[in-house]
Amino acid sequence: MDALLQIENLEKYYGTKTIMTKAINRISFTIHQGEFVGIMGASGSGKSTLLNCIATIDTVTAGHIYLDGSDITQLRDHELARFRQQNLGFIFQDFNLLDTLTLEENIALAPTIAKQDTKALESKVKNIAVKLGIGDILNKFPYEVSGGQKQRCACARALINEPKLILADEPTGALDSKSAGILLDTLSNMNQQMDATILMVTHDVFSASYCRRILFLKDGTLFNEIHRGNQSRKDFFQEILDTVTLLGGEDSDAK
After folding, report:
1. What is the strand order of the sheet 213-218 is part of?
2. Which stretches of the chain score pLDDT less than 50?
3. Residue 70 to residue 104: CA distance in whole angstroms
4. What residues contact residue 196 under an 8 Å CB cut-off, 6+ apart?
5. Longest CA pairwise span in the chain (Å)
6. In the CATH scheme, what architecture does the domain 3-95+165-252 have?
């Protein structure tokens, strides 16, 4: 597997010289093309800050982030929007769909703004929607569908530009258990059948058990790393739970 994302000695500080908080303290790791990786840690561990730095929403204090060989920490402000559009897909906890647009229009919004070919885009949207199980509701508005269907629409929107990396921030946080399970199956299928590379921040052990590898953060540092390997998801769930218990903090209370 080729290295897609490389994090090298990443640091992120907040505050002043007299009152300094180290949100991320010299973290390094690599994610390969086609991986499904989870990031776990208690509140204040640095997981959301790390995701925001990779997403270029936040800037780093020191260190480097390489995506497909390019150092994204060196991008200028005017280059960031295009970089995100061309390379990253986002799945948020609160869906971030526009209620005045149909699901189809929500999925196609970014490429439509970028003036991509309309007919080709329409075919692409339908193809992705069918794969994610929402092909028959594309003409509906977000307020007419369930939370799980909204989140699968958000997944389709994240995939539409064929991003190199999909960043998912607590994607099951606003869903009931049934919808969460459907979404996690969807993410797993995106990874296995569509070769999507996914980095997911989650506090939930059940959600994390769908990943193939988990990075655990504690106090801004990389505390531990585990791989699913040939384990069943049930056995991997138990290994994650044991690690979370060792880690301490709020994640010990698994759903």
Report:
1. 88-91, 165-169, 198-201, 36-40, 213-218, 221-227
2. 251-255
3. 32
4. 89, 159, 166, 190
5. 58
6. 3-Layer(aba) Sandwich (3.40)
